[in-house]
Amino acid sequence: MILDYIGVKEINGSLIVLDDVENASFEEVVDIRMDDGTMRQGRIVQMEGKRVVIQVFEGTRGISLQNTRTRLLGHPMEMPLSPEILGRVFDGAGRPIDGLGDIFPLKRANINGTPINPVSRIYPKNYINTGISTIDVLMTLIRGQKLPIFSGSGMKHNELAVQIARQAKIKDANENNFAIVFAAMGAKNDVAEYFRRSFDESGVLQKVVMFLNLSNDPIIERILTPRCALTVAEYLAFELGMHVLVIMTDMTSYAEALREFSSSKGEIPGRKGYPGYLYSDLASLYERAGMVRGKEGSVTQIPILTMPNDDVTHPVPDLTGYITEGQIVLDRALDNSGIYPPVSVLPSLSRLMKDGIGAGYTREDHSALSNQLFAAYAKVMDARSLASVIGEEELSPTDKKYLEFGKRFEEQYVNQGFNENRSIEQSLDLGWTLLATLPREELDRVDDELLDKYYEKAKKQLETEGERASQPAAAGQTP
User: Its biological function (predicted)?
Assistant: First the structure.
């Protein structure tokens, strides 16, 4: 039996309240018919006996207290799914906005997902090549991992997201079993158009599923956007056997929408006004990454968030760091100096990279090289601090070599073009070339066998290039 509830008890922001509702369920979807015959959708977000609070997706403007008809649909919000979803663009609530018509679904899935049994999870091991040296060598992204990017307002995280989506490759994956799900939350119109145009021009749009929630869209859709995106990712990964990379930006916009929604429900606020359940809410999104035993596919997440005032202790980056397996931190000083991508090496890490690199995955020297680059760059920071106190002229010869190494490291290794796609071998070889500018006795994180094989080769190559550069061109000859 289908029942329509006529009238609304109360309207508060994006919420409406109904009394005497029978057999309602939490998260159940409802249809709301207005006086003029137009339809809106909502979902039940709070229940107190027979009183229910409904969140209206399109907002409550124009809703009548007397004549509005509300119908409970008996199921949670669902996302239509089929293989033809690849290459499509949706709004934040999963409705097509690319002009190509509706999806004809093979199935519908609850956007809240189903928990993955921890016993059935497979430990992530294989790596994803992004073509970006700092990420691939120093904080390697592992398939099935969740590795966030901590950025700041106005920095180039959007460009970095597009570059990763364009260049990402998984070993043993091809165009038929690799896909990207891209979710933008609270994006401005020009930013959303930039994402769409960039994917289209680079030719990767056919393997991308895009969800665009704009800054002028209702905040309710912003809360749904990552859930719709992850539902699609799980379908592609665990039912179609694809390897899926999910990029979500900006998680701070999502958290602020959650704060506004929580406030409208009258919930007691926590730190900086965010709801006390922000941690568990973020975990319900991030923990949908991984690999499942018996399934070929995988879901890897790169959430991007902007830190208000570049404060890493802000609740959103703070809680994200607890849930995820590392972080990539962008540095404003590097960004201001024109270095792209402005990855701050020392506070960045990938906790799972140790099991997905080395012989059989990347190369035998990867782990030792990574450790040595970290150690050398840490000494660069110490030398710079000392130089700011006593002056660069008073530094020891070794400290001066570290200063030179640090300059080269930032200009040649951290810095690379937006369209520059480096293979893992190129990134590793470049790392050895930079280490060759330091004395061998300073490389205490690498064993002699690897030094003999890689360091000496890079040293000889540097010396050869130096000799060529020092030889003046013969008179009358073109150099």
Answer: Produces ATP from ADP in the presence of a proton gradient across the membrane. The V-type beta chain is a regulatory subunit.
* pLDDT, tens digit, 9 for 90 and up, residues 86-126: 999 999 989 999 999 999 999 999 999 887 888 999 998 88
For residues 108 and 427, give the distance between their C-alpha atoms in angstroms, rounded to a whole number.
Answer: 43
Whole-prediction pTM:
0.91
Q: Find all residues with CB under 8 Å of 56, minimum gap 6, and list them.
A: 14, 15, 16, 32, 40, 41, 42, 63, 220
The label of the residue with tokens 């960039």 reads 198
pLDDT at 174: 67
Q: At what angle do helices 424-435 and 456-470 cross, to 10 degrees?
A: 70
Distance CA 233, CA 242 (A): 9
Q: How far apart are CA 145 and CA 467, in angstroms?
A: 45
Domains (range + CATH), the chain = 4-75 (2.40.10.170), 79-355 (3.40.50.12240), 366-467 (no CATH)
Cβ pair 358, 390 in contact under 8 A: no
Q: Which residues contact 144 (CB under 8 A, 6 or more apart)?
A: 122, 124, 289, 290, 291, 298, 299, 300
- The DSSP secondary-structure symbol of 302 reads E
How many CB atoms are closer than 10 A to CB 218?
19
- How would residue 173 be classed by pLDDT, with cut points 50, 70 and 90? low
Dihedral sign computed on CA atoms, order 315, 318, 323, 324: positive
Contact yes or no for 51/21 (Cβ under 8 A): yes
